[in-house]
Amino acid sequence: MPFIDADTAVRSEYDVIVVGSGAGGGQMAYTLTMNGARVLMLEAGRKYDPVAETPMFQTPEMAPLRGSVTTDKPFGFYDATVDGGWQVPGEPYVQASSDPANRFDWWRARMLGGRTNHWGRIALRNGPYDFEPRSRDGLGFDWPVSYADMAPYYDKVELLIGVFGSNEGLENTPDSPAGCLLPPPKPIVSDLLIQKHSAKLGIATIACHRAVLTQPLDWKNSPAKLHPGNRAAQAIIARDMQRRAACIWATPCGRGCLIRANYQSPTVHLPPALDTGRLDIVTDAMVVEVTVGRKGQATGVRFIDKTTRKDRRATARAVVLAASACESVRILLNSKSAQFPQGLANSSGKVGRYLMDTVGSDLAGQVPRLESLPPHNEEGATGGHMYIPWWLYRDQAAGKLDFARGYHVEFGGGRRMPEMDTAAGLEWLTGGTYGVKFKEDARRYYGSMVYFAGRGEMIPNEQSFCEIDPDVRDQWGIPVLRFHWQWSEHETRQAAHMQKTFAAIIDAMGGRVQKPAESDGTKAIHTGGSIIHELGGTLMGSDPNTSVLNKWCQAWDVNNLFVADGAPFPSNADKNPTLTIMANAWRVGDHILDRMRRKEL
Amino acid sequence: MDRRTTIQWMLAATGALAFRGTGAIAGAATSTPAPRAQPYGTDPKLVEIYHPGDLWPLTFTASQRRTATMLCDVIIPADAISPSASAVGVVEFLDEWISAPYPAHEEDRKTVLGGFDWLEAESARRFRRPVPGLEAGELGQICDDICYLPRAGSQWVAAAKFFARFRDLTAGGFYTTPAGRKDLQYIGNTPLARFDGPPIEVLKKVGLA
After folding, report:
1. Smallest CA–CA separation between A590 and chain B, in Å?
2. Which of A26, A226, A282, B126 has its CA 20 to 30 A from that of A41?
3. Which residues of B touch A247 (CB under 8 A)?
4. Rg value, chain A, Cα
5. Cα gap B114→B108, rounded to integer Å
6. Do B206 and A189 touch (CB under 8 A)?
7. Strand stretches in B122-169, DSSP E
C-alpha cells in the first residue's frame, strides 16, 4: 500500500526516511527504491492527483475573476500550486527588517510534489566554471565536486525525465551526450526576430532546455543506460516511460500535465518508485525535527500528523532532508537537544547561512513588425522555446564589467490565450482610445509584445541568511524562520546591465520599451526570494569548520543524515537549479546505497 | 498512451468544456448570490466551472449596474467583428470583481463605485440629467476628458485614473470570453499532433523569409 497513514508508517521499518516529495525528494526516493531500499516519504502537504485535478483546457471565463491572481492563488487560479504561495495560512515567517530592500519572499507549496507541479520546466546544466567560482574570481565558494563528477548524473536525469534542447558547444553551457536531449520545438516568430536582431549585438540565441517531452521517451534504450545490470528497475521504468505521452502543444505547463508530458515529481519520479513496492508515502505529515540517539546518530523524525494533529515518530537507518532549502534548515535548527544545543549538524554555526536566490529583472517592449500578423497557433510547448545563455565571459575576465557573474535571458511573446492583462494598460501605445478605435487597437497590438527576463547568479554573502524566530510559532506549534537579506553590488549592477541589454535588443528589433530601462540596479532588481530559486543554508564543502555537509551532502556531525534539495548548493549559477538538484540527489542517493551495501549506515 | 488516443481524448474533453462554458455565462445573471463573502482559499477545486455570484454575492445596485453597462459599452461597443462588452457578460464579471473579498479588489471597488458617483455628479453638472438619461455623444464628451491620464486636466486626474482602471477591467472581462478570443483571432488551446512554427506568410511579413 503506497499511500499509508501515519500510524502505519510509525509501526513499519525503513532503510531511509525522505522528507519532502519535490525535485530532490522525488529523485532520492526514485534512486533508492529502484535499487532495493525501503523508503518512507513524508510530505507536509496534501495528496495531489494530477490526473484528476489538472485543469488542462479550462479557459479564463470558467474561473473566478477570469483566473487572474489573488492572494489565495498568487500565480493565477489555474496555477497547479495547492495550499501555497507567498504566504501559507497558519504558517507565517518573519522578516528581520522592515526595509523592502532586506525582504526575502518565501514561496512554498504544501502538496505532493511541492513546487515541481507549477515549475517553469527550464532545465539547464551548470557548466564547469559554475562548480569552481571562487577559484575563478575569488568570491563565494567552490563546490567540493566538479562538473565531471556531476555530468553522468545530468545525463541520467535528462534521459529519465525528458528534456528538450540542443548542443551548441558554447562556453560553460554544456552539451549533452548524443541521445540525452529530445529535439527542441520550432521557434515562434518573435523568437526568430529576437535571434536575428540580438545577433547584431553579438548575442547568441539558442534552444532552451525544458523538461517537456517533444517526442515519446526512448523506452527501449534508455532503461539500460539508467539502470545498468538492474533488470527489475529497467522493466519498471520502461513500462512507465510508455505511459507518458508526448506534448500536445497546448495548455500551460504551470497548470500541471495530466498526460505526463512534462516533469512534475508526482507524474515522473513517484510512479515508478511506487511501482517498486518499496515506497510508502505519508502526506499531511509536517516534520518538526530529526530525532537523535544516544550516540548522536539520527534515529528518524518527529512529525505532526495534520489529519489528527498528533505527534508521531518514524524511524529508519538514515534520514534525508529534501523539504526545500529553507524548510530543511528550519528542521535542523529546530532539532535541538542536550547533545546539539544549537540545532543538529550545526557545530560550524553555518546552518541557515548563505541563503541565495537568483537575480531577476524584467523589461517589456512592443514591436511594430509583429503587429496584425496573420493569425496562427503560437502555443508550442507553452513556455520558452529559446533563450540567451550568458555571453560575456571574456569581457568579464578582462575586467570590463562592473559585476562578477553572469546571467541568461528568458523571453516570451506570441498570440497567447487572452488573459485579464492582454489588452490592459495599452495607453502608452493608444493614447487612451476607447470605443471602436480601442477594439481596433487591441487587435493591432495583440501578439506584438515581447518580454525579457534576466536570471543571474547571486554570490552568497554573510548578510543573507535565515534563523529561528525566538517568538513566533506556526499553527502546529513549530518555531518559524526569520529572514535576513541583502543584495551586494554584484547583483544590483548585474540587474542594471540586464535592463540595458533588454532595451538594446528591443531597440534593435525596431521596437519601443514599455518603460525606460532602469539604470539604478537597486530599483531594477526583484525582491529576494521572488524568483523562487531558494538555495543554500546547509552548504556542502571540504572543511567541517566552514560547511555543514561533506561532498556527499552528508552532515559532518551526523553520519546518517543527508540533505538533498537546494540547501547544499555552495553557489547559485545563473542556470535554474532544479536539474542540478535532481542530478545531485541521484549522486547522493547512489552514495547512500553504497554505504548501506558496506553496512556503514 | 499513444499520441492519437491522447488527442482524440483531448478533443472530446475540450468540446465538452466549451459547451458547458457557453451555457454558464449566459445563465450567470440569474444565479443566486452566495450568502457570505468568503475568499475561495488556497485549495479551490480547479476543474469546476464558476460563474459570477457562485463564490460571493454580487453587490451592484440597479443604478450601478445601469452605469456599468453604459460605460463598458462605450469602451467596447458592438462593431462588425464582435458584440459589445455587456452582451457577453462583462457587467456580471465587473460585479464579481468589485464584490470579491480580496484586498486588491476592495481597492478597485472604491475606485469603480467612486468613479460611478463622480460620473453621476458630472452628468448632473454638465447636462442636468442623471447618467441613464445621457445621449451617447454627451457621455462621450465626458469620456474624452478623462480617457488618457497624461493629457487629462488637473481637475480630471482622479476621474482619469478611474476610467483607466475601468477600461482595463472591461477589456479584461471582454477578451477572456469566447467572443473576445474570436475578436482577437486567437488560435490555440487545442491539441496538435505537431507544432510547425510560424507559417511562411508570417515569416515573409516580418522579413524573415
Report:
1. 31
2. A226
3. 195
4. 24
5. 9
6. yes
7. none
Contact A59, B176 (CB under 8 A): yes
Q: Which of B2, B177, B198 lies nearest to residue A61, judging by beta carbons?
A: B177
- Report yes or no: A51 at the B interface, CB cutoff 8 Å: no
Q: Are A109 and A82 in contact (CB under 8 A)?
A: yes
Per-residue H/E/C for A151-217: HHHHHHHHHHHCCECCCCCECCECCCCCCCCECCCCCCHHHHHHHHHHHCCCCCCEECCECECCCCC
Q: Do B205 and A374 touch (CB under 8 A)?
A: yes
Count how many residues are written for chain A: 601
Length of chain B: 209
Per-state percent for chain B, helix, strand, coil, to nearest 5: 60, 0, 40
Query: Order of strands across the sheet with A298-305?
Result: A285-292, A298-305, A310-315
Distance CA B69, CA A135 (A): 66
The count of C-alpha atoms lying within 13 angstroms of the C-alpha of A351, restricted to the half-sphere facing its C-beta, is 26
B124/chain A closest Cα distance in angstroms: 23
pTM over 0.90: yes
Nearest residue to A393 (alpha-carbon basis) of A128, A13, A207, A591:
A128
Q: What is the pLDDT of residues A285-340, one digit of tens each?
A: 999 999 999 999 999 999 999 999 999 999 999 999 999 999 999 999 999 999 99
Q: From the centroid of its chain, how far is CA A72? A: 21
Q: What is the pLDDT of residues A184-212, one digit of tens each?
A: 999 999 999 999 999 999 999 999 999 99
Among A275, A281, A211, smallest CA distance to A238 is for A275
- The whole-angstrom distance between residue B79's C-alpha and the CA centroid of its chain comes to 17
Asked if the C-beta of A207 comes within 8 angstroms of chain B's C-beta atoms, the answer is: no
Whose cell is 565531471? That residue is: A148
* Pairing, β A279-282 against β A108-109: unpaired
* Closest CB to A186 among B103, B191, B195: B195
- Spatial separation of the C-alpha atoms in residues A577 and A572, rounded to whole Å: 7
